[in-house]
Amino acid sequence: MSKPIILTGLRANNNLTIGNYFGAMLPIIDMARTRSNDYQVNMFIPDLHSITTPVDYSAINKQIILTAKHFVAAGLPLDNPDIHLYRQSYISAHSELTWILDCFTGFGEMNRMTQFKDKSNDLAAERVSVGLFNYPVLMAADMLLYGPEYVPVGDDQSQHIEFTRDIGERMNKQFGELFTIPKTVKEQHAFFGKDQGLRIMDLQDPTKKMSKSDESGKGVIFLADTPEAAARKVMSAVTDEVAYVRFDRKNQPGISNLLEILALLQSRSLDEVVKEFEGQTLYGDFKAVVAEEVRRFLTDFQRKLHDVDEVAVTAKLEQSEKAMTITANATLLRTQQAVGLRPGN
Ligand code: ADP
Ligand code: TRP
Question: Which of 77, 88, 276, 308 is surrounded by the fewest CB atoms within 10 Å?
Fold first, then answer.
């Protein structure tokens, strides 16, 4: 009996912050490692989605490999046969199934997708592509080809999961059991234990989240920052006038954020870290501890990233792509037969 599947897409981006690392990358890797006893875990890089908005086309190929390397540096094992890592565009069934699903998707249905509205609002009209409009259908194909039960994604992607369920069920009704449908978003939240709400805040404005798209980047620690520059950002983090270290997000958001960052970097509980530093009155000393820990973390992460064996990563990608092509092509053929494009209906 084959294992049930958990599937998720990892966007290619090399401009990642420690917020992305602790808020998204590590939890996904932990999930893959712990769940792979009972599940097949499909992790893929949605490179076809990457080109739905204008990008630097000369950089994208390198970014894809570097994204895979980031995950390996953060602890994703390459030798686990139940974890697959693949590039979407290397499995042509993704594009082919998308076209068929397109022909069963209402224009009005797509027009209601909020991510499209948000993303297209950010672009000049002539840069809004049909590919961007079609983004959710490609996502539906990503899922329906493999029939995952669970698909861990951020809240902004929930509508796309619901759409996948809708189109999958609609086609099953019309053609018989073609697809395995992912569980509802509610069931997904229950399974994964809904987002623990981790939010690392900007060092210069601790009331807003640390984000890679922040323009100045002064309050943002990027994984690619030099350890020294990152340490300096911590030393100049905005704090308060209270002169008393305490965890109080509302009244001392800067200090609270640094306590939280320190706990994550040291893999300790927040309680423990708060107990150790509560009551300190010299913020400079406390910041120096956090800065040193950031410096150590980045030095270590960048060394790991540098040491990731690119040949081994490429071999894993190719191996997974070969295996996944077989599964994906089987679903595609079933669908082609159902809609009359191949004999054997
Ligand atoms: P960004 O704001 O850096 O562009 P995205 O919106 O692309 O980040 O989010 C990518 C993933 O990283 C999401 O799962 C999100 O929850 C997580 N994430 C982003 N920023 C933070 C943060 N400051 N703290 C915790 N998690 C974060
Ligand atoms: N759109 C997702 C994101 O922005 C990435 C993604 C693409 C995905 N296809 C998917 C996630 C299929 C889950 C399942 O994060």
Answer: 77
